[in-house]
């Protein structure tokens, strides 16, 4: 009672005491806001063993950018295990979780993601000609809710595969191309190979393989028809590249591949984009979107460099001499 009825000086002291308690708390809260929890969904069309190194680079880059799983990042993963028919259901499930960004790779993944949602931002790490496939309005202004990176296998690119085969085997007169005709981009690359082959006086043999069960027969046919082989990337060959390598190695075939997985399984040569770099760049896209950027405003990138990798161990085992001119141009030589 006595304190409550005290003088004006007591009220002043009380005010300063209250401010001393309140002000530091408010200042601390303003300087150190509660961290935002980001929710990223990753839907892999293929087995987790495919693009394993490249995908690992994606998660590493996100950590480098400050997104740490279990702290400010929640990660959910789905895998189609190479069964592309499962993608629509997996994408619908991922979209239903209301993730902040949906990440995938390849045209089938991008198409399934866009069908599942037109609001959740989508980052596609590996797109074959996204404009032609209807994934984006243009590379510079993709529009909609999808952006990411294109592989850059554009017109004339396949000439490099033919050039490397001819340089390795100067007497080469014909080349077999192993492809799945049901794969739309295999068809695009096949047309490009046709156009380039005529200018290099090469005869082409297109060997079709539509299922894993038909792979052995197709590869046997390819090695009978030609001493030079191009194996185009396909989910069921990427899932078991060592099987492809072993079948072609029996007849000392000079083969070139489109994906690094083949060189790691013992393939002779690979020429194409470095998917590890592309997945790292995909993480940059995710970071920008999580910080407020809109997919429609993020131009789709194409590779600025392609990597030639040569396996000299395989060359020796096959009795093939890799010319010095190729070794000097190679970005990586496995000895």
Characterise the protein shown here:
The chain has 335 residues and is α/β, with parallel strands linked by helices. The protein folds into three domains: 1-31, no CATH class; 38-153 and 275-297, Rossmann fold (3-Layer(aba) Sandwich), CATH 3.40.50.2300; 159-273 and 306-334, Response regulator (Rossmann fold, 3-Layer(aba) Sandwich). 43% of the residues lie in helices and 19% in strands. It contains 13 helices and twelve strands. It has helices spanning 8-31, 52-64, 87-96, 106-116, 159-168, 184-199, 215-225, 235-239, 241-249, 260-264, 275-290, 312-318, 324-329, and strands at residues 38-44, 73-79, 101-104, 122-127, 146-150, 174-179, 203-208, 228-231, 254-257, 269-273, 306-311, 332-334. Strands 7-6-8-9-10-11-12 form a seven-stranded mixed sheet, with helices on both faces. A five-stranded parallel sheet has the order 2-1-3-4-5, with helices on both faces. α3 (87-96) crosses α4 (106-116). The longest helix is centred in the first third of the chain and has 24 residues, at 8-31. The radius of gyration is 27 Å and the shape is elongated.
Short synopsis of the structure:
The longest helix is centred in the N-terminal third of the chain and has 24 residues, at 8-31.
Keywords summarizing the entry:
335 residues, alpha/beta, Rossmann fold, 3 domains, 5-stranded parallel sheet, 13 helices, 12 strands
- CATH architectural type of the largest domain: 3-Layer(aba) Sandwich
* Alpha plus pi helix count: 13
Helix/strand/pairing category? alpha/beta
Instruction: Summarize the helix and strand pattern as letters.
Output: HEHEHEHEEHEHEHEHHEHEHEHHE
Total domain count: 3
Low-confidence segments: 1-35
